[in-house]
Structure to design on (269 residues):
């Protein structure tokens, strides 16, 4: 006896075709979601770079050996009080302290960003004698200070200069003002201002040569070297857009070999 076996095919589920209006609404919803996400991202970035953290790079030798040319820093802008903003009482701000490394806007020219170390606080008397720093007449230890014997600087040996009219290298604006702050061979730091110097004392154009840093010009404190690349001051001399693009391109081409891997994620002190 033969038996015919019949195979049962599964029922085919008909495809559902969405109307054109529904598909269009879905695309619009996706576009709206994307634009909202993009807007939120932009706002977070703007908020972060305005109030919390910002990236900078070191173009000169003035802070060596603490910071090297080619170090890329993250700067904490969420740290110093003194701007008088209402939110300072609500957030964990603190005063600027001696020894803090700060990023600030240079008081002259195009207001480029500088990085130096805070040496003199408002109301303090500053003097350097035979490379020894004195604050209010008392010697201050500076384990971070570096004196390059191959680059002699009279202002690194003694400051203020005995004759500021004859001192070399002072900006004209500072040369005409420094006399107002001299008292018995010491420099008096005015209110809401700071006296700063680079750690590389013989190769730093700092408060000795151009004056004080206004509190309002201080942006924040470097906290981390997130990347470091072997570079020279000449590599950052051209600040034009073309020069910046050329520098970025060259860095990317030599990224593995030119990166200072041992300085990555190093805390700044």
């Amino acid at each position: 006896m033969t038996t015919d076996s019949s195979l049962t095919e599964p029922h085919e589920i008909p495809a559902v075709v969405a109307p054109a209006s529904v598909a269009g609404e879905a695309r619009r919803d996706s576009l709206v979601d994307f634009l909202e996400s993009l807007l939120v991202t932009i706002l977070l970035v703007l908020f972060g770079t305005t109030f919390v953290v910002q990236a900078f790079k070191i173009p000169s030798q003035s802070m060596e050996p603490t910071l090297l040319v080619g170090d890329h820093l993250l700067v904490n802008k969420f740290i110093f009080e003194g701007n008088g903003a209402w939110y300072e009482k609500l957030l964990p701000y603190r005063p600027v302290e001696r020894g803090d490394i700060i990023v600030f806007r240079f008081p002259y020219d195009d207001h480029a960003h500088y990085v130096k170390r805070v040496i003199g606080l408002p109301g303090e008397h500053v003097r350097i004698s035979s490379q020894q720093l004195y604050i209010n007449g008392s010697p201050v230890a500076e384990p971070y200070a570096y004196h390059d014997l191959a680059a002699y600087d009279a202002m690194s040996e003694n400051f203020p200069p005995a004759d500021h009219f004859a001192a070399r290298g002072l900006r004209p604006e500072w040369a005409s003002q420094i006399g107002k702050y001299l008292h018995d061979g010491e420099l008096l730091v005015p209110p809401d201002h700071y006296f700063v110097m680079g750690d590389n004392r013989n190769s730093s154009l700092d408060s000795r040569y151009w004056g004080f840093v206004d509190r309002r010009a201080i942006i924040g404190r470097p906290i981390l070297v997130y990347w470091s690349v072997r570079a020279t001051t000449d590599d950052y001399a051209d600040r034009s857009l073309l020069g910046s693009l050329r520098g970025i391109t060259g860095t990317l081409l030599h990224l593995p070999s030119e990166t200072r891997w041992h300085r990555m994620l190093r805390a700044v002190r």
User: Anything to note?
Assistant: The domain at 54-267 is CATH 2.10.109.10 (Umud Fragment, subunit A).
